[in-house]
Structures are given as structure tokens and as C-alpha cells.
Fold this sequence. Notes:
Layout: E1 8-10, E2 16-18, H1 19-25, E3 27-32, H2 42-50, E4 61-62, E5 70-71, H3 78-88, E6 89-95, H4 99-108, E7 118-120, H5 125-129, E8 142-146, E9 153-158, H6 167-208, H7 215-221, H8 224-231, H9 236-245, H10 248-272, H11 298-330
Parallel strand pairs: 3-6, 6-7
Antiparallel strand pairs: 1-2, 3-8, 4-5, 8-9
Amino acid sequence: xxxxxxxxxxxxxxxxxxxxxxxxxxxxxxxxxxxxxxxxxxxxxxxxxxxxxxxxxxxxxxxxxxxxxxxxxxxxxxxxxxxxxxxxxxxxxxxxxxxxxxxxxxxxxxxxxxxxxxxxxxxxxxxxxxxxxxxxxxxxxxxxxxxxxxxxxxxxxxxxxxxxxxxxxxxxxxxxxxxxxxxxxxxxxxxxxxxxxxxxxxxxxxxxxxxxxxxxxxxxxxxxxxxxxxxxxxxxxxxxxxxxxxxxxxxxxxxxxxxxxxxxxxxxxxxxxxxxxxxxxxxxxxxxxxxxxxxxxxxxxxxxxxxxxxxxxxxxxxxxxxxxxxxxxxx
Length: 331
């Protein structure tokens, strides 16, 4: 059964948290703690800090339930972990009350100054609503992804115990989620590249039909820089209508501008790839990012992909129309 998270909840400080909006902007991760008295659950938050969630990551983490288990994360792994945990993801933490005890956990885990809301579920009504009530005083320790639009909770990890905190499953999920988004983005870039070649071919054919003035003369009469400034104020869909309905010279420059926009959009997406960019890999298994990397979130990448998809659809329609136009003229 799919459980749906409420659209709005109130955090520990009395602020209303719009879950629907957060889920649109981030990979919204839900973390639940069994109870305020549970010594195991807060360890997950401390381990996330170790992996790079916070800027001042500790050098190591000693498992309080196994003194011989000392976790360390190589410094070169921190930037990529931080991309997944801090740039891509956003966390909401729920714990049964009382509020003072939940606030104590927030402070002990160094989350007091973080933007991530802590939700007190003292009567376990929220736990019941999302299917995570464990007993009359406890909720199931859980990690899940709250989907945008539907707010359906996708399970990542259920249960928590000494040495089994769920951080590995979370990092794996965020990694695979970014892979999925980047592969889709890479496919759109490939499609745009193929379409660019086809677009140049069909537009060359249609512009070569009939008496076409010398290209050098066209550039003197219609400098592309001038039309580029004009076209900056015209949306691509409106430009498509304009270039199809006007003279051949205007059409030629309009085609160039639209092709340039598609190439710029494709480059914007390509430069935003991290996992699918071979130049940013140190080997086939590990992804190394510079400490001062400017990698964008999967949400921002998705917006770039939508822009590319929009201009690609326009170019595809122009290709189809131009093919038909050339056929009619030749006929």
C-alpha cells in the first residue's frame, strides 16, 4: 500500500513546512527516529555528517555499540557525497516527542543550525497516517523518498540497529537516482546533436532552392548580430512561426539562431553532468570532484533538460515543416 505524506506539517519551532514545494525542489528524504530515548537512531544523523552532509565534517565516527568500528571517509570522496546529500537531497526528520527531547537530539547531532526540519510526533498521529506506527510510543526507524506531485513515500531502508544505520542504502539510492537523471539528460544531448546535423542539412536544402543571393552579400545586408539581438526578444516557439512565414533570408538567419539556442541548451546540460562525464572520473568506479566544484542539483539539471527538450521539439517541427516545404517546391 502506498502511503502519502501530508502536504503541510509543523516543525519543532512551530513553522509550517510545505512538503509539496520541498519535494519539487529536492530529492526529499524522510528520516524517522524510533523514539526520543532510542540511542541507535541518532547515529544515522552523525554518520551523514561524517559523509559530508555538513561543511564541518568530522574526521571519523566511532560506533558507540562497537568500539572497534571506527568509520572514516576519504577526503576525496567528500565533495561527491556532499553533492548527493546536500545539493541533491533535503531531509525531514520525524521523532516521537516530547519536544524537549527531540530538540536535544537535534543539538547533539549538530543539526540545530541546519535547514532541515525536525517534526515532533508526540501522539504518533503522523506515524499512523504514513503507516510507520510501531507501538503506542514508537515509530518504525525508516528512510524514504517523498515523491514530488504525489507525495507518495518510496521506501529506502526500514529498521535500524547497531552497525546497521541505513546510510549505505541512502547513499546508494541517491547515487542511482542521479545516474538515472543524468542518463536521461545525456540521451537528450545525443538527440539534440543528431537533430542539429539533420537540421543543417534540410535547411541548407530549402535555402538552396531557387535564386538565393550570395551568402557574403546576405551577411552585409542582414548581419546576424543585428538579428540575434532582435531574436533575443522572441521566444523560440514564436520565432518558429516567424521564420517559416517570412522571406528566405530572414528564414536563414532565424534557423541559425534557433540552431544556436539548441546547441547552447545542449552544452548547458552537458556541462552539468557529473557521473556521465568521463572527464570527471578518476577511474571506472569512483567519482572525484574538486572541493570547490560547482555541480548543480538534479532538480536544476532537470530544469536544463526541460529547456533542451522544448527547443529540441521546436527544431524537430521545423525539420518536418522544412522537409515538406522543400518537397513542395521541388515538385
